[in-house]
Each structure stands twice: as C-alpha cells, then as structure tokens.
C-alpha cells in the first residue's frame, strides 16, 4: 500500500470513529438526552445554592422544613408541592430574587419524571 492510500484509510477511520462515538456521552449534563437526572449529580447543587439559605439545618427565616438531603428533597416534591412552588409566579420559591432559571426548573422536573433517583 502506498502512502497516499494509507493516509486516506486513516482519515476515513478517524471520521468513522468520531461519528459513532458522538451519541450518549454520560458526562453530558444536557437533560434532553438519555442521561438520567439524579439528586447527587444535578439537584443537590441547585438546592445548596438557592434553597438552604432558609431551608437549612435547622431551617430559618420561617421556612417550615429543611432541604438538605435526598430524602428531604424527595419528600418535599411528593408532599409539599415543590414543583408548583418553583414554577409559581404568585407564590414562588425561592421567594425573592426571581424564579430559578428555566434550565434549572427543567432539570428538577426531569428528575421527577426519571423517578427521583438518588445516584
Ligand atoms: C429566603 C428564604 C427562602 C428561600 C431561599 C427558599 N425558601 Fe422555600 N420557603 C420559605 C418560607 C418562609 C416558606 C414558608 C412560607 C411559604 O410557604 O411561602 C417556604 C416554603 C416552601 C415550600 C412549601 C412548604 C410547605 O409545606 O408548604 C416549598 C416546597 C419550598 N419552600 C421550596 C423551596 C425551594 C425548592 C427553594 C430553593 C429553590 C426554596 N424553597 C428557597 C423560605 C425560603
């Protein structure tokens, strides 16, 4: 085989490899692909940044419960209307500073849809 041919074949192999491996990257956090949303990987950082100032351990500023663990967060979704509150414009959570971003709310919704996975 001459040099030109082997160069051509290598190029084709690289192209083929790149195309076939571009599908389900498990490190991709885009909620629209097949990656499952979990508390540990996606939800905990949102509650840490936006909720535990009041829903800490212990809760403060009049918040009725803490949201510091997987179980507490799951419980709030199932029994305290958490999804309604993060999407509410009249009675929102967090109560000040505007709603979570659309992307963050989508992540929490997909977490629920995926079955409230911990890890
Ligand atoms: C500035 C303080 C503060 C922050 C930050 C905050 N909350 Fe709250 N939260 C409260 C207070 C006070 C209440 C109780 C009064 C009410 O229901 O509006 C409450 C109530 C709730 C309730 C209803 C509980 C029930 O049993 O009725 C949910 C659900 C909730 N918060 C979720 C969240 C989530 C999720 C975040 C973060 C995205 C968050 N909150 C951030 C202060 C806060």
UniProtKB/TrEMBL annotation:
GO terms of molecular function: electron transfer activity; heme binding; metal ion binding
Gene3D superfamilies: Cytochrome c-like domain
InterPro entries registered for this protein in UniProt: Cyt_c-like_dom (IPR009056), Cyt_c-like_dom_sf (IPR036909)
Keywords carried by this UniProt record: Heme, Iron, Metal-binding, Signal
SUPFAM superfamilies documented for this protein: Cytochrome c
Span of domain Cytochrome c: 44-112
Signal peptide segment: 1-23
Protein's recorded name: Cytochrome c domain-containing protein
